[in-house]
Amino acid sequence: MRRWNGWGDEATEFPLRASAVRFLRQRIGKGRPLADADLDQVIESVPRSRLPEHPLVDRSPEIRVRHARGQSLGDWLAMRSGQFGVFPDGVARPGDSDQVRQVLDWALAQGAAVIPYGGGTSVAGHINPPVDDRPVLTLSLGAMDRLLRLEPENRLARFGAGTPGPALEAQLREHGFRLGHYPQSWELSTVGGWVASRSSGQQSLLYGRIEQLFAGARIETPSGSWRLPTIPASSAGPDAREWVLGSEGRLGVITEVDVRISPLPEFEQFYVGFVPDWEQARELARRLAQDRPSLSMARFSNAEETRTQLRLAASPLALSALNRYLSLRGCGKGRCMVTFGASGDAAFCRAAVKRASALVRAHGGVMIGKSLGKKWEHARFRSPYLRHGLWEHGYAVDTLETCVEWSRVDDTVSAMENAIHAHAGEGEKALVFTHLSHLYPQGSSIYTTYVFRCSPDYEQTRRRWWAMKEAASDALVACGGTISHQHGVGRDHRGWLSEEKGTRGLAALRALTAHFDPTGQLNPGCLVAEEDRP
Amino acid sequence: MRRWNGWGDEATEFPLRASAVRFLRQRIGKGRPLADADLDQVIESVPRSRLPEHPLVDRSPEIRVRHARGQSLGDWLAMRSGQFGVFPDGVARPGDSDQVRQVLDWALAQGAAVIPYGGGTSVAGHINPPVDDRPVLTLSLGAMDRLLRLEPENRLARFGAGTPGPALEAQLREHGFRLGHYPQSWELSTVGGWVASRSSGQQSLLYGRIEQLFAGARIETPSGSWRLPTIPASSAGPDAREWVLGSEGRLGVITEVDVRISPLPEFEQFYVGFVPDWEQARELARRLAQDRPSLSMARFSNAEETRTQLRLAASPLALSALNRYLSLRGCGKGRCMVTFGASGDAAFCRAAVKRASALVRAHGGVMIGKSLGKKWEHARFRSPYLRHGLWEHGYAVDTLETCVEWSRVDDTVSAMENAIHAHAGEGEKALVFTHLSHLYPQGSSIYTTYVFRCSPDYEQTRRRWWAMKEAASDALVACGGTISHQHGVGRDHRGWLSEEKGTRGLAALRALTAHFDPTGQLNPGCLVAEEDRP
């Protein structure tokens, strides 16, 4: 059964190694475990539903608890403390687009706010019920998880919007295809959610972002159904698909998604190497991005991330052997880990891997055997579980991400990391580390993780979290970065949107949402709101 | 000096070969030359300007004639007959964004319609003054043709929006870079126009469409300046750049454009081959598109286009030798010409060319030496001049284009070509031929050319042209195609937009334009209008 107050299935656990706990204690002090609330207690705290009965709507307290929050650290603290604040008044689980239409019309007529819900994996408050007088209906697409149409000749597939990553790939695999979109949340997140939040997957170097994979959709808008056809390319005015990408539920409910698929790769492998320092890592990243290297993924960890990842993942013995070897080969304390992969035609991939390995060496680095690459492959969807292991020992973890041009990468990484350190709290420290993982000829994404020990109570912990997140968000936007390269805006990031869109862009976005949703009932407060700072 | 009533410079001519004229006569009958109007006569017909004086606005009749029309066949017939119907009341030629702001504010205050003007190369009526009571100001960006900023590390360049293709590439070449965007209109069209009309270039397989090359912009909107920053990628809501791409002047005047650039290629070469029939050509195209072939361009002519192109370009002697050779090698009367090219790293390109050549052979085809490829390269921007050569002999030529999925390519080509044949007019014939030139894993563009002899007068010629264009447009939209893959919507294609956007998409587009331009003064009638069929 899926956890009601955390990530993934209850049966799946990845506890911390003792050596990892020692490392954390040494770096940021002894953890302070906080007591978890009990599901039964939380269920008792759920108020009476403000929605009337409807055959497609479940108003029972437990299901309302289980759909009240996403996976941001703020959500986590709310769930763990049991202080949810607000719950949806009911959860609908329609089986097809017609039922979505039916329940959407009903909810709009009730004056309810409607929150489209995919996998519930948002880390930006996309699915959190707004606090106001209106009842809230959470509309889960979870029952719409099937392949609806396959066109092998056109490399197209249509899915129910609620299809999660593993079910989507399994259904394609039967026919010899894959989508190739692997966000960190892949186990639980859905194809409709990927579109609505403009997500990006680990192998974006080859398959592109969801923008490149999204071919068409059916959307139930307040004024009726809207089918976006799957035309390969067009110059007939602005592309309406691009209004839907990142619309975060504000224009309507995405019920079916057409995606561009690829044949299963003949070859797929991941590799790990190390370079002596960050300067080399960042230059290597830029070089790989600008040389059309035909890799499917590449990731560049800074020294602190390299150190931390290895401490969390490897036994002390193995680690010390590795470190000795790397030091001998010229990668000392400042060493940075490089992970890359290739997928597709075998001969093509082998040539790409050879070229990339040569570039690692040309940057003073060294390639390690395939074992670490395999390790990365097997563990690549595990990061969200890490929060559980840390939490047990009294530590909290969160991430922040952006995208900037190459010339701004270093300043932005510094500004983000420094802001977090500076706001860790009186007498407290944070462990902060960063990697680059989505590369473009023009620039790179930046993904920063920070671990800190909990305060003695939830409210203080939450306040420190927000202080770090807010300061780092201010810093990255000041560096010219986007407030999100892959997590979206939701309710949490709204305040940092105007720098990117401009006041004119934000006003236009409001005009667009108001056009589709004149009564403001579709995911209100998400993405844009009237009170946004100009 | 640039022609006032046709394409390109007055000094540049490409007359038809005698053998080509014989070919046309045999296929569609003896041409009927129509008499051209005289510039002086047309200038005399220009009415008094309805705009007051302004230091940045030229109201002289000749400049108003020279900015009244684009390059559609309808525009051509208007210019050649001297029946312009309507002229702009003045032409502004601001030197920078601030002057654009100044003249835009002035024109809006005058109640004028404002038509942003790049290279004047529209073939869809983008820049034709609307016929109504308002004065019309044509706002030419032609003086804003400089490189404004170069960021080699970030592979970015900023240009004045009025920079035409050759000036843009020349300024980049000095620094070792290229944009790589080569629409057929490249000699005259501008970077701002490419963005506003969502254009696509010959080497789109490698460099992408303008959507992929467009990084940011400055736009003067009625309510003020709007700077779209150059963030490499973002999930922070819908991408505002995608509202501007294809906006056709309806949101504001694009004054500066940031583009993503590439280093000058180490290697660039084009090749020609032939396959026995269309079935093989189309399958080869699909295979090349879906196998990530790393070519920069590929073009697949059907049998009629192959025949016509060779008749127009080659001497009868050379042609007959070629045909004998091809027939011996299995490419008989149904033979289809395949042109492809590769650009970039030499080793990479050679491998790609080898693979593509092997695929041509695997489809029963044969590769020809490099001479035809070089010929294509040298002649690739010449097609617009062809209209002059044909016109002198009493023939008119026009093109139509769309994009559909692979499974629909054959039906769409047939439907378009048949519709044109069926509407050539009582007792008249059209020469109709087609190629595929922009390939996607999902489908292909379709580009159809039709040549017909003029009627005894202009009005009949215009009516026959529109009957063919209208029937083919109805046909391609009925096949699920876009009304334009690379020419845009303008005023001429508006009637076929609703199938692609849906009524809801069109209504949203209207809401967006109304938001930016509440008084409806920016390029009114272009892209969307209130009277569009639902």
TrEMBL record, chains A, B:
Concerning Pfam families, the annotation shows: FAD-oxidase_C, FAD_binding_4
FAD-binding PCMH-type domain: from which residue to which, for each copy? Answer: 84-264
Q: Which UniProt keywords apply?
A: FAD, Flavoprotein
SUPFAM superfamilies xref list: FAD-binding/transporter-associated domain-like, FAD-linked oxidases, C-terminal domain
Q: Which family does it belong to?
A: Belongs to the FAD-binding oxidoreductase/transferase type 4 family.
Q: What is the name of the protein in this document?
A: Alkylglycerone-phosphate synthase
Organism ancestry: Bacteria, Pseudomonadati, Pseudomonadota, Gammaproteobacteria, Oceanospirillales
